[in-house]
Prior knowledge:
It is built from one helix and four strands. The chain is mainly β. It has a domain at 22-56. This is Antitoxin of toxin-antitoxin stability system.
Amino acid sequence: MSIKIRKIGNLNFLTVPESIMPLAQEYYVFQGRDGVIVYTPAEENPFTSDKFIKQHDFSQTEEFSGPMVGKEIINDQ
């Protein structure tokens, strides 16, 4: 299937064929180095969502404790 870009005023439009059922109302659009145009559904980033952050524990503890004894000691000399 092939579609053509429509120019209306200063804007370019790519139509979505009837055979493609959009899963979202809003999309991000990117163009790759090779000219590929990619549309991805616009979704909220869960890592910046206050609701998501409140529901999850992002604290981190070290697996091993105690003094450093090997290659993990960095010597700047």
